């Protein structure tokens, strides 16, 4: 049984209100934009995602990032999970990502997490994304009980939950 309804069509382009930013599914072709975004914020991202996902390693190479983005693109096409890039209007920079995944831990029907690059932390763009994502998930996705990782549950508490069998 799929974690999403068979007729569900995932969102393509989603503007972030009150900014010149938008979300769209990430692609392998975005590696040249993604790699500097991730590695430029690697230390902070590791503090957030490292214990749970082992990502992003300090030694991650451009090629490893490219392979990971190809995997994300393939997973979206197969409706297995979704990685959305946060992009500027001209799509010249990735400024963060939003992940929409099937549940790994009991108690939710979808798990969502997101981040912005270091330069946006604490600013208006991060605030706008933080406001958008829960609304977007509630209105555009078919979840009854989504879990916002690092938001409505700490990563540590999430890791302590039993895994979905």
Automatic annotation (TrEMBL):
GO molecular function terms here?
acyltransferase activity, transferring groups other than amino-acyl groups
Domain N-acetyltransferase, by residue range, is 21-138
The record's Pfam families line, in alphabetical order, gives: Acetyltransf_3
Name of the protein in question: N-acetyltransferase domain-containing protein
Q: Which species is the source of this protein?
A: Actinopolyspora righensis
